[in-house]
Amino acid sequence: MTAVVPGPVGFLGSRQPGRQGEKPRAGLDVAGCRWEHPTRGTFRLSGASGSTTVIMVSIPEYYEGKNVLLTGATGFMGKVLLEKLLRSCPKVKAVYILVRHKAGQTPQERMEEMISCKLFDRLRDEQPEFKEKIIAVPSELTQSELDLSEQDKEKLIDCINIVFHCAATVRFNETLRDAVQLNVIATQQLVILAQRMKNLEVFMHVSTAYAYCNRKHIEEIIYPPPVDPKKLIGSLEWMDDGLVNDITPKLIGDRPNTYTYTKALAEYVVQQEGAKLNIAIIRPSIVGASWKEPFPGWIDNFNGPSGLFIAAGKGILRTMRASNSAVADLVPVDVVVNTTLAAAWYSGVNRYSRPRNIMVYNCTTGGTNPFHWGEVEYHVISTFKRNPLEQAFRRPNVNLTSNHLLYHYWIAVSHKAPAFLYDIYLRITGRSPRMMKTITRLHKAMMLIEYFTSNSWIWNTENVNMLMNQLSPEDKKVFNFDVRQLHWAEYMENYCMGTKKYVLNEEMSGLPAARKHLKKLRNIRYGFNTVLVILIWRIFIARSQMARNIWYFVVSLCYKFLSYFRASSTMRY
Ligand SMILES: NC(=O)c1ccc[n+]([C@@H]2O[C@H](COP(=O)([O-])OP(=O)(O)OC[C@H]3O[C@@H](n4cnc5c(N)ncnc54)[C@H](OP(=O)(O)O)[C@@H]3O)[C@@H](O)[C@H]2O)c1
């Protein structure tokens, strides 16, 4: 199995005629070129000698009149992509979204509910008619042929120009069977459908930067898969669930979960099955709240670090197995979306000029603007101390440790003991205990993420840098993914406030009460500590002569120190 090497860097446009009815696009090696007069939509490149001039399409212009297919539109990344595409490329013809029936709602109802959320406020203001461009297509991706009706299938085959495949199960503890079903088999089926699309220009597959997390240095190439997906799929057909679960740890080997394992298999499937397609793969690391768009700090789920930030803000999460110095490779969702839209533009405009190989983009931050878990902890705690969450359980404070013994000590002292005491209090006051259950759930979530908070990786980002250099100044502004400009302290504050506003739906007007509550918790802690000291004194000091001697010695030392301090400070005046 050979690895795919990324395509040539720094080549734009095409010298070959486009498809029938399409404007021919000129091509030019951009080395030694400079940008001239960026105008709305188009931009102009001229050779260093000034002799050659070429007109290139901008990103919004590329999407003009295009029919786009998007999977996973109801998910975190999918809906940000949908919003950004419609807002920043207003002339896109239509976006077909594959949506399944869920919780008694039809795909159409789900789409309507989704676009009524706050994320779409800005788009609603700017383009009140945007809804007409979104077409919800019923599709259950885990079913045969994606459960598409014949009519829908024909429609998609006839009209789609660009595919964005975002749908996946991102649960780290998914069973292997389910993870393979959605992340591998559904991807395969979508690629097969894409092969039949008559006007397809680009197939964008969203993978993860951790697909090859068993390596420390990850380049922008597709590595050999851990197993032949076809063989695995064949085996899963005859194995029962018990057997599959038994062999899962052996199969995933040095990967931490079925998610990263199946995402690696999916990349291989895309490469093998889509050999005739123009494909690009985007690999984001840990996708966090938005940096700028449509507004800072937008987030709508508890997945990944967001749930842990909330638990820390509530004062429930007090310790975590993590390395303070490990790189926290968070990447804002708008950065991922902008990179994805730009990558599709690049592959689309160069579809006749570039060799047919898959462009892979490691969409990460650690290499260009590193941020560490110790810093994450500091910013989360300081934000939530200044702007507390409502009804916090304790004052926010977290200890990150990679020491096994310390970790278990803190788990017992600052997680389990307070939860146990609180549950007793709930029982005494006639309420049902719940804190131990919450703590158990939290520990499960922490276990799933600790592999990523304890290790660091190095990702090559040459293709991402190359892509950035291909953008016109105007596109660079509108589709900004230059993470060197990211100011982490500000981002983290907006992220935490985003979890408060958009995930927990807490009003900012409730802040004074939340601060008062935090002060009350601090006084309770002072009171508790005082009682503890008195108890210790009663138990140990009052009963043992030696402990008493040590106690008097310490007290007299403090007294002498204070007297000396007072005397020396009065002498100055
Ligand atoms: N979030 C991250 O930190 C992160 C990091 C790296 C890469 N990624 C990649 O980014 C992509 C999007 O992730 P995300 O965070 O947006 O995930 P998400 O919020 O969990 O969204 C998953 C999407 O997939 C859809 N989906 C799941 N099962 C389906 C099925 N059987 N049929 C039809 N649709 C189905 C979901 O639809 P329903 O609403 O119907 O469930 C949802 O729209 C994924 O490919 C993921 O691997 C994410």
UniProtKB/TrEMBL annotation:
Its predominant location is membrane
The protein's name in its UniProt record: Fatty acyl-CoA reductase
> What biological-process GO terms show up in the record?
lipid biosynthetic process; long-chain fatty-acyl-CoA metabolic process
Q: What Pfam family is a match, any one? A: NAD_binding_4
**GO-annotated cellular components:** peroxisomal membrane
What range(s) does the Thioester reductase (TE) domain occupy?
70-339
Disordered: annotated span: 1-26
Has the keyword Ubl conjugation been applied to this entry? no
The regions listed as transmembrane in this protein's record are 526-544
Per the record, the similarity remark reads: Belongs to the fatty acyl-CoA reductase family.
Query: How is this protein situated with respect to the membrane?
Result: Single-pass membrane protein
Does Signal appear among the keywords?
no
Question: Which InterPro entries does the entry mention?
Answer: FAR (IPR026055), FAR_C (IPR033640), FAR_NAD-bd (IPR013120), NAD(P)-bd_dom_sf (IPR036291)
Functionally, this protein is described as follows: Catalyzes the reduction of saturated and unsaturated C16 or C18 fatty acyl-CoA to fatty alcohols. It plays an essential role in the production of ether lipids/plasmalogens which synthesis requires fatty alcohols. In parallel, it is also required for wax monoesters production since fatty alcohols also constitute a substrate for their synthesis. Catalyzes the reduction of fatty acyl-CoA to fatty alcohols.
- Catalysed reactions, semicolon-separated: a long-chain fatty acyl-CoA + 2 NADPH + 2 H(+) = a long-chain primary fatty alcohol + 2 NADP(+) + CoA; 18-methylnonadecanoyl-CoA + 2 NADPH + 2 H(+) = 18-methylnonadecan-1-ol + 2 NADP(+) + CoA; octadecanoyl-CoA + 2 NADPH + 2 H(+) = octadecan-1-ol + 2 NADP(+) + CoA; 16-methylheptadecanoyl-CoA + 2 NADPH + 2 H(+) = 16-methylheptadecan-1-ol + 2 NADP(+) + CoA
- Start and end residues of each Fatty acyl-CoA reductase C-terminal domain: 415-506
One GO MF term attached to the UniProt entry: alcohol-forming long-chain fatty acyl-CoA reductase activity
Major enzyme class: oxidoreductase
Q: Where in the cell is it found?
A: Peroxisome membrane
Superkingdom assignment: Eukaryota
- List the keywords (alphabetical): Lipid biosynthesis, Lipid metabolism, Membrane, NADP, Oxidoreductase, Peroxisome, Transmembrane, Transmembrane helix
Q: What is its EC number?
A: 1.2.1.84
